[in-house]
Specification:
382 residues, alpha+beta, 11 strands
């Protein structure tokens, strides 16, 4: 059962107790665990007065039924009129940021995404995905478009980024554009780890940085497979998260000793610099400083508009929708040079291409070429 928190509440709070008791009695929610906040531990004598609730399967089913009924009504002419005319349901655009990228994201949500079609597509999704998407679509039908920026990571969070991957792949935009290609950076955060370590010190770590960058930006073998092999470990979907967790300072992963030995032996200066830093900030800083500089640069969406490609930000991935496949290939070709223009390094991109029916037709890791000719490509992004 998914652990979906409802709210953390003080036991016996008169504002909520009656309602929570009813929900518990009807088996719509259940107590996941009890705990004592450190701030009030002394006052309570250590008694666990707080509860963390989760929604039961029955509760999730009823909530999804309510969302589906809400969507169906909101998509009728009567529902649309009520939403349009009602002051209580007027457009609620929470735009916490005002930069160019945020403005474009909002425009995509309001003008480009076809909610009616999304709802029909979502009907055939697996149950867990369908209920997740329905909660998003219900808000969109009432024009509740929200774009927020996580200041720690530099990532935008929108109804689009919150949708399930399979639904994003099937979206057809209002002008008929379909998903043609997804591009993401191969091992994005580990790739920029060397530059991150360099930013933490005045010490000369050029030698180690060159080797690190060669592993992640130049060599053809997948760098994570090579690292796991040297650590005597198998790299697969179940284990690939361990190295990322390790770089983020997690000491709970079972492979920490192997990673520590590999990093300290091959990159001793970088290892010491990183060990003396706040490791928990590694991932969020890389996201904000390096990932955002490439994937969320305003010039990227500008290039898409020039070529007739709708570029949807999906954190360390771009979803490219278009009618013309040639335009998308031109976009990808130019985008590959963008990281070189910013960092003098070319990110290794993984591309996934889709046919007219949304079926994957190509998935390649594109290895960087020599830097010759970069200036000709980069001029499109200046």
């Amino acid at each position: 059962m998914p652990r979906q928190s409802v709210r953390t509440l003080f036991h016996g709070d008169p504002r909520y107790k009656t309602y929570l008791d009813i929900l518990e009695k009807e088996e719509l929610i259940k107590v996941d665990h009890r705990y004592v906040p450190s701030a009030i531990a002394a006052q309570t004598g250590g008694k666990p007065l707080c509860k963390r609730y989760r929604i039961t399967k029955k509760g999730e089913s009823l909530l999804n039924d309510a969302n589906e009924a809400r969507i169906k009504f909101n998509l009728t002419s009567e529902g649309k009129k009520i939403i349009r005319d009602s002051s209580s349901c007027r457009r609620k655009t929470k735009q916490v940021i005002t930069d160019v990228t945020a403005a474009r994201i909002l425009r995509y949500l309001k003008e480009i995404i076809n909610i009616d079609e999304l709802y029909e597509l979502n009907k055939v999704q697996p149950w867990e995905e369908r209920k997740h998407n329905n909660s998003i679509l219900a808000s969109l039908t009432e024009h509740m478009y929200e774009v927020s920026l996580n200041d720690k990571t530099g990532r935008f969070y929108t109804p689009y980024t919150n949708m399930t991957r399979s639904l994003k792949e099937k979206i057809k935009l209002k002008d008929g554009q379909i998903l043609r290609c997804k591009i993401d950076a191969r091992s994005c955060h580990p790739s920029f780890f060397g530059l991150y370590c360099q930013s933490l010190t005045d010490e000369d770590i050029t030698g180690e940085l060159l080797i690190w960058n060669h592993i992640f930006f130049v060599q053809k073998e997948h760098p994570m497979r090579a690292i796991y092999k040297e650590c005597g470990m198998e790299y697969n979907d179940a284990t690939k998260k361990y190295f990322l967790s390790y770089l983020n300072g997690s000491q709970s992963e079972r492979y920490c000793p192997q990673f520590t030995k590999w990093l300290s032996t091959n990159f001793p200066k970088m290892f010491i610099i990183w060990s003396n830093s706040d490791k928990s900030k590694t991932g969020s800083t890389i996201s904000k400083v390096y990932e955002s500089a490439v994937f969320r640069h305003p010039k990227v969406t500008e290039l898409g508009e020039q070529l007739g490609v709708t570029v949807c930000d999906n954190h360390d991935e771009l979803m490219l929708y278009a009618n013309n496949e040639r335009a998308v290939r031109a976009f990808v070709d130019i985008f590959k040079s963008f990281s070189y223009q910013i960092f003098n390094l070319k990110i290794v991109l993984k591309e996934e291409w889709f046919d007219e029916n949304g079926k994957k037709i190509e998935a390649d890791s594109i290895i960087p070429e020599d830097s010759a000719g970069e200036d000709n490509k980069s001029k499109h992004l200046k």
